[in-house]
Amino acid sequence: MSGVVVACPCGEVYELKPEYAGRLLECPVCGRHLRAAGARGPVRPATPDLDPAFDRDLFLLRERVLTIRSKYEVWGEDGTPILYVERPTFPVRTLFAYVLAVLAASFVFGQTALRGPGLGPLFDLLGYLLAGATFLVVATSARPRRHVTVYRDESRREVLLRVLQDQRVAVLVRTYTVLTGSGTAVARLSKHYIHNVFRKRWYVEAPGGRRVAMAIEDSVVLSLLRRLLGPLFGVLRTNFLLVDMGGLADGTVLGEFNRKFTLLDRYVLDLKADAERRLDRRVALALGIMLDTGEGR
């Protein structure tokens, strides 16, 4: 890819001519000052035991459209493809789960109607409630779990990371386990549905269960407006702050996950604020993927 790619934390991504390399620019959307890639500066040494694809502070995610599976291309700051991500949707198996749920709910409602004819509207209401509960339980239990796989490239020959959906049925909390390609657990991600009412948030836990980071909607006011007005054609697109929760740096912003204002789903995961690398880049990327596909954005 020719030219220079500049990503702003507000979500905008610019593709510039090579002559802009190293220059200080201003984002026309938010007014932030950005340094285009190519400027000379201190070279940060590579992180030991970390795959070069993850050894960076900025990831550009682009979701492909018109595909059955959820598919993402992950690019580096210079516009080079570095990873390929898939999450299956299982449309046939999901349809079968809903058909099975309808049959089960119809059977339950039929049994209540046969056992309580003429018992009044309260018994009829009980039949509807039981049928509805049966539909929800069967539909969610029969649907397959949707795991995320991060590959080296589109050939899908080498798996670098997996994000496993832990439960088929989740009432208040849904969790995902992040594994390396060899199967070693590096983190657990948890989504708390009760927080979605006011301000969405996800927690990152170390393998031992200690919370180390949190992704939270960027603004209380904007989150409430999103609940009332929806995304408003992308004007109120949902962005997240990544916040440290581990020890002395508790509450420090480690990065941002922002959606670019475009018809296509494009995201910027910016971790430049985390100069000390407190948040594992593999876990951060897994979290970014789930902030999109796990929220159904």
Explain how this protein is built:
The structure is a single chain. The chain has 297 residues and is α+β, with helices and mostly antiparallel strands. It has three domains: 1-43; 91-142; 147-290, no CATH class. It contains four helices and 16 strands. The strands form three sheets. A twelve-stranded antiparallel β-barrel has the order 5-6-7-8-9-10-11-12-13-14-15-16. α1 packs antiparallel against α2. It starts with a strand and ends with a helix.
Distinctive features:
alpha+beta; 297 residues; 24% helix; two-stranded antiparallel sheet; 16 strands; 30% strand; twelve-stranded antiparallel beta barrel
Short description:
With 297 residues, the protein is of the alpha+beta class. Helices cover 24% and strands 30% of the residues. The chain has four helices and 16 strands.
C-alpha Rg, in Å? 23 Å
Anisotropy-based shape? elongated
Number of strands: 16
Secondary structure category: alpha+beta
Order of helices and strands: EEEEEEEHHEEEEEEHEEEH
* End-to-end Cα distance: 28 Å
Element layout with pairings:
Blueprint (H helix, E strand, L loop, with lengths): L3 E4 L5 E4 L7 E3 L6 E3 L22 E6 L6 E6 L5 E7 L3 H25 L5 H22 L5 E4 L7 E7 L7 E8 L4 E8 L8 E5 L5 E7 L2 H10 L10 E5 L8 E7 L6 E5 L10 H13 L4
Antiparallel strand pairs: 1-2, 3-4, 5-6, 5-16, 6-7, 7-8, 8-9, 9-10, 10-11, 11-12, 12-13, 13-14, 14-15, 15-16
Helix pairs in contact: 1-2
